[in-house]
Amino acid sequence: MPSMSTDSGWPGTAGSLLMAGWCLAMAGVASAQAVVATQPARVAAAISTVEKAITAEAEATVKAFNAGDATALGSMFIEDAELVDENGNVTESRGEITALFKRFFERFPQAVLEMEVTDARAIGDELVIEEGIRRITADQGTAAAQVRYAAVRAKEGDRWPIASYREFSDDPLPTPAEMLAPLDWLVGEWVDESPEGRTQIQYQWSEDGNFLIGDYNLSVGGRAASRSTQRIGWDPVESRLRSWTFDSDGGFSEGEWMAVDDGWLVKSEATLPDGTTGSATISIRPSDQDHFVVESTDRIVAGAKEPDFKLVIARKPPAPAAAAAPGK
């Protein structure tokens, strides 16, 4: 019998308006400690002055934002500045940026800004690049909207207004469990009964919730024949689901999972106990909540093509309830 191993934020307009908020963040961004540690000597000599200037810009930005002063915030940008929010919306010129802030404060008059500069570096004597995080709380008791930003400041006299500001979504990466959620239907006990033997299958979540664990037990003529254990997890490097299967005879295999319209395709590479290798394409398609179909094609073992196969796997029915005791 062939191996049964399956291996083998802000909504809508608010987002644009909040971008305005980023501005301030970026404008104020700053804390003196973040500006350049290792720069050419001529730039390093001016670090103290730049730190003071950026600190002043930051304080003015936070003060203006928390006061709802759109005009003062607009003055933190050069005349032909550009602002790009996390949704890719572009606002150009100091006048348009000021208008953006005005609309924002009309909608969120109680908004509060917090900023954290994570990096700042001088580029020559006239430019400073800042990177950081800005958080805006629209109203008391609401969650803060957080984004990452990158800003370019250009020197104008004693000031360092913003020439270009761009923000990026700072949503947390999905957890392995979230990426595995589409396979949650596998959890439970399953069985395949065919002329070659009986395979009992059980899937469950790992204790940490980061993997799906499958156990396959094959019996022939009522006697145990082989056992396989599988783990399915999320590969963040390749951005895909991956599985690893280990057989009781010493063989093992690895599979790359790809979602398709009606289920999953698994590209499997296997190593047999004798050192030969094999590969196969496996299709897994749920047909209803109690059945799924497994088809294996393109099966190559030690360079030789093997026949395709198709199996229908059924959810194991619950054990019958114990008979009621006499007189009950």
Describe the structure.
The chain has 328 residues and is α+β, with helices and mostly antiparallel strands. It folds into 2 domains: 12-169, Nuclear Transport Factor 2, Chain: A (Roll); 176-315, Lipocalin, CATH 2.40.128.20. The protein is 20% helix and 45% strand. The strands form 2 sheets. Strands 7-8-9-10-11-12-13-14-15-17 form a 10-stranded antiparallel beta barrel. The longest helix has 20 residues, at 47-66. It is elongated, with a radius of gyration of 30 Å. It starts with 11 loop residues before the first helix and ends in a 13-residue tail after the last strand. Residues 1-6 and 8-45 have low confidence and may be disordered.
Write the layout of secondary structure elements.
Elements: H1 12-28, H2 41-44, H3 47-66, H4 70-74, E1 77-84, E2 90-92, H5 94-107, E3 112-123, E4 127-137, E5 145-154, E6 162-169, H6 176-180, E7 188-194, E8 197-205, E9 212-220, E10 223-235, E11 240-247, E12 252-260, E13 263-271, E14 277-288, E15 291-301, E16 304-305, E17 309-315
Parallel strand pairs: 1-6
Antiparallel strand pairs: 1-2, 3-4, 4-5, 5-6, 7-8, 7-17, 8-9, 9-10, 10-11, 11-12, 12-13, 13-14, 14-15, 15-16, 15-17
Helix pairs in contact: 1-3, 1-5
